[in-house]
Structures are given as structure tokens and as C-alpha cells.
């Protein structure tokens, strides 16, 4: 094992940032897909942005059903990396690829078939229904590609190899920057597809990134080698993966489901408010990327250290990550508060009302970004300790017991109207951070980790 990828020794702060910054950059670049789409679609008008804004939360809901399984791959591989069991790293990676491929294929078929009823369910109006359905259907074709690359990223992250996925994402995003206007507006003999063209461009680039990632795994020169012989279903291993991955999937699904039902509240206030919500949500997704990157880095570092039986070092990683996330995200939140109108105007330059409402949304949320960061990194620690149930329970409470009821009551029963929806975000972020931090300090996750560590360690396969 190279010392460079062995996160169970050396400086914590250096390891955290060395691992986190490529993850953060890759996540920023991934988010750039949606931001690029929004930028070009904004040139078609507010209805085009609203159409994608309506379909995006449901797309995220479908994707998150499989995302938890890719997280399971990260955790399992990272712990075998800490235990220095290369055979189980390769076997686990192969099994993960096999499972995710079939899950994503089923979701692709399902997504295409239910696109129209789903868009009607969330309240797409006649001016946005057709475009939102087409965007969702085309995007469904890319689920397999998207999941395969996400799995590649997760497996590489588990062994501490985070640079290669970042380079691949950079190349595909640059390609998407060219393909987006080409397929949205058309050029020469190439027909423009409007809103659906943005999805076409994304599917093409996702296919390229997936092919490159899978080829790297089969070649086996970057720390993991997958084999067709290892993809024969091992139902005991798959059961363990689902036990770990299903709570993570439900946790991520609960987040996207809340965004979906919030869209149902937002749509009752008209297309301009929907567009403002879509722009604010996308900017928010970009801003919280550092927190998600730190959380993913924390998951990998904690997983490797638990695999190496270094529980105290794993706790030190948690303490460091909380401080970095809180102070770093609070600073970013202050910047977003100051430049809210400029950022909103960048996406819809000719619609003063959307600019105004989008800026209000950002300014209401911005002060709570540090608390959001604390919740994210502690969820990352719990996941790395194979305690994905903790992240799930905290998310369900903060999102379904706090955020949605607060959004409904404040928007429907008070003079705040749709701004009540905006206020539900900082309220739920604060409560989630407090609950996660209190639970973290009880130390129950450490006791549980020590007690159950032997449940997953087994000799190499084959």
C-alpha cells in the first residue's frame, strides 16, 4: 500500500485537504452540468428554466435511490483498504459494479415510463409540462452512464485516489459546455431541441465518462482491478451492501423528495417564483459542494482508520472536519449573501422579478451554510463508521418533521407567502446540525463500531 493513499497515518489536516479538494472540484464540475444548462436555457426564457426546475428534483430523487449503493461501495472498499486486503477491494468493486448496473438500468426504464405522470403530479403548468417531460425522458437514458461513473468515483475515493475522477469530469464538462448550445439552439444541419437538447448533451458526455471510468477499472492500474469472474452474484455480499446502502439511499432520497414536494408548494405561486426557486436551488447546490466534499473525504478517512482499528484517530478526523466545515461554509455564506443579486442575474439577466426573488431566497439561506456543513460532515463520519442509519434518522427528522411542515405552515398560513418556503431551509439546517453534533459527542457511534467491526472483516475471496 502506498503511503500516499494510506489515510490511517500522517497529518490529519494534510490528509483531509489532499483528499477533499479534488472531490470538491469534481463535485463543482458535476454541478456545472446543471449550471451550464440553466445558463443557456435562461436565454430561452423563464419558462424554459422553470421546466427544468420542476423536473430536476424528481431526477435527483431517482438518482439518489442508487447513490446510496455507490456510497456503500466507498465505505466497504475504504475499510478493506485500511485492513490492507487488496483481494477484497477488487472483489467488492466488481460486485458493486454488477449491482449498480442492474439497478440503474431498471431506474432508466422506470424513469422514462413515468415521466409524464410525475410532471403532472408535481404541478407542471401547461406552459412547462411538455418541456419538463421531454427533459426528464431524455435524461433517463443517461442513468446507466451516470451511475457507472458515480460508482467509479466512489470506488476510487474509497482507496484515496481522487485525482483521476476529477480529470475525467473536467474533460466532460468542457465538452458539455460546447454541446449544450449546439443541441439547445442547433447549428447548421444540426437541429436544435430546445429544453430537451440540454439533456441530450449531458447524456453524451455521461456516456463518455462512464466508458473511460469502467475501462480504467478493468485495466487495474489505479489501485482497483475489476474482473468479470468476480461479478458473479455473491448474495451474501450483496445483502451486506444493501444493508449498508439502503439507509444511505433513503437518506439521500428523503432530501430529494422534500425538494420535490416543496416544488409542489412553489408551483402554486407561478412560473416566476418557480424559476427563482430553481436558480436559488442550483446556486445552493454549488455552494454546499465544499461541505459534501469534506463529508466524502471524512467518510473515506474514517473508513480506512476503522479498517486499521484506529478509532481514536477516526474521532480526531470528525473533530477537525466539523471545525473546517463550520467556519469555511459560514464564510462562503457571507459572500453569497453579499453577491446574491449578481449571481441570480447571471442566469436570468432580463427578468427583474426573478432576479429579486432568487436573491431573497439565497440571502435567507446563506447564514445557515456553516450549520449545513456541520451536518454534512457528521453524516460523512457516521457513514464511514458503517452507521448509515444515524444519517437517515437525522435527515428524516430535520426534513420531514421540520422543513416541510415549516414550509407549508409559513407559506400557507402566514403573510410570508412563498418566502416561508425559503425560511424552512435555515430552520431545518440548524436543527439537524444540533442533533447530529449532540449524537456525535455521546460517542455511541464509537462503541457500536468497536462492537461490530468483526462482522464485516473476512478473508480475501478466491
Key descriptive features of the protein:
transport; 462 residues; mainly alpha; globular; MATE_fam; antiport; 18 helices; 80% helix; Multidrug-efflux transporter
Describe the SSE topology.
Layout: H1 12-41, H2 46-82, H3 86-113, H4 115-121, H5 129-141, H6 143-158, H7 163-185, H8 195-219, H9 235-266, H10 271-287, H11 289-307, H12 311-338, H13 340-347, H14 352-365, H15 369-384, H16 388-412, H17 419-442, H18 444-452
Helix pairs in contact: 1-7, 1-10, 1-11, 2-3, 2-5, 2-6, 2-9, 2-10, 2-11, 3-5, 3-6, 4-5, 5-8, 6-8, 7-8, 9-16, 10-14, 11-12, 11-15, 12-14, 12-15, 13-14, 14-17, 15-16, 15-17, 16-17
Can you count the helices?
18
Strand content: under 5%
- Detail the poorly predicted runs: none
Total strand segments: 0
The residue-averaged pLDDT reads 87
Specify the overall morphology.
globular
What is the distance, rounded to the nearest whole angstrom, between the alpha carbons of the first and last residues?
20 Å
Described by strand count, sense and barrel closure, the largest sheet is: none
Helix/strand order, N-terminal first:
HHHHHHHHHHHHHHHHHH
Radius of gyration: 21 Å
Structural class: mainly alpha
Helix content: over 70%
How many discrete structural domains?
Answer: 1
